[in-house]
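Sharing a chain and its predicted structure for anyone who wants a worked example. Both blocks are below, sequence first, tokens second.
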Amino acid sequence: MDQLGAITMFVTTADQGSFTRAAACLGKTTSALTKAVTHLESQLGTRLFERSTRRIALTEAGQIYLASARQVLLQLQQAQEDIDRLQQEMCGTLRLVAPPSFAPAFLNAVCYGFLERYPQMRLEVQLTDEFVDLLGGGYDLAVRDGPIELPDLIARPLTANRILLCASPRYLQRRPLPVTPETFAEHDWLIFRHPALNPHFWRFTLDGERQRVAQPVPRLASDNYDFLFGALLAGLGLQLCPQWSAAPYLRRGELVQLLPEATLDPEQFGPQIHVIYPAHRRHTRKHQAFIECLNQYLDAQQLH
């Protein structure tokens, strides 16, 4: 049996905590992973996993072997990347994860530009609002807002996560009532529902004073930002939008910023968007090339 392949299957099984999930990650059958782990156990003369009908768990020997196995795979991967850099080639696969709302705002354009610039590169992009473990999931990069203080990861700021109050000219023509905290309840609102956001109050600074206002009853609420953003452009109401999402529409006059003097609290999303990657990949060329594409696009859109 291929020893390196067996080690890879063992490490993935340990990371996923399940033969079934590991098989799905690697595109192999559960029986192939079971056979690989059994092969390693036979070579080592000890069990690497304690198995039951419901779960598997590393034995003490398995924990020791896992630490060494990770180093073997890491060193081999680093050697391959060193060879790629030596040959001045950009090839292989870059796996990244980001929230779905980043895609139409800027990530689509960045990915398209990256693939055009580096024709031998491939991208795998997962779009999800759920927290994804970069190391455990085998991802190369994440573009993320919110808490980023995680071990063994480097976080580089990309752009400010400034929140704007916006409406379309169509809505403002239909509802010419001034937009102030005192008139919020008289307007139609499009409100994004997310576990990181307070569902009852908004906090902002206006005229040097920190204020808290009750959220009005929404005309339309959703946990999908892009769905709400489409309603905003269609003139259905007011919405709080990140600047990175609204900027191109504001430049084209498709949206209007309201209360520009107010500083709205991004809450748990944090003040910055970050690109995040494992510390051991800090010098990997494909990572740096993708980050360069991100920065160049954001510079061109005046979002830095």
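Comments welcome. The longest strand covers residues 153-160.
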